[in-house]
Amino acid sequence: MPDYTCIEFETIGAVARLWHARPEARNAESQTLLDELDDALGRAVADDAIRAVIVGGRGDHFSAGHDLKEAQAKRANFTVEQRWAYESRRYYDYALRLWDCPKPTIAQVQGACIAGGFMVANMCDLVVASEDAFFADPVSHTLATAAVEVLIHPWVMGLRKAKEMLYTGQRVTAAEAHAIGMVNRVVPRDRLEEETLTLARRIAEAPPFAMRLLKRSLNRTLDTQGLRIALQAHFDTHQLSHMTEEFGQRRDAGMAKAIEKGKGR
Ligand code: ZN
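Above: inputs. Below: predicted complex with zinc ion.
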């Protein structure tokens, strides 16, 4: 196992648990964190002893989203070509790799699950949330981009609620997320890890190849409805939104500042 610096990889019997592990930065998804998460997922997939994967976050929050301080420092002046290369690999392809993971996956969510964090959590098959969890994608308000790179929102929360969340930039609580079927279970914060692990262990009891085939069929249900083409089309549109006057003004004013303003919505 490599020496990861931004994630932790645990195995508990037949379950692999991957943690965002930058709690001091609200688990902001830096380049290294995303590279490590993808690497760890690949190892969990390759290990025949692993039959279910949990994706969680250390500390008080699942993830506040992409690391925008790093983005401002390293990628503010990216050309179209450079941004495309970066975002198609680390945001789009990594996310879809999680969606297509041949083993069942569960997001274990507490506190903030925002923007890029929302995208990653919703690539998982199931979501278990603690009562304090909240979900938001405020970037159209704060950064003037068209949502995040992977527009999974309408597929997991319904078009009506997705529009409300994205148009307002406001939070969806764990209770609301549960009511609309975006979250499978809501549990007290101190029970989150145990309840998620119990669910993962139950799933891990099933014959793994049957699970793999079942997941393919379930995901193909959405493919027949156009999931993949819709996601690809949105990625292109999202790239366009990075080149607008509106985005440029916010970038020049400082993305981190824009995010501060967006907090507490
Ligand atoms: Zn982007």
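Residues 80-99 form the longest helix (20 residues).
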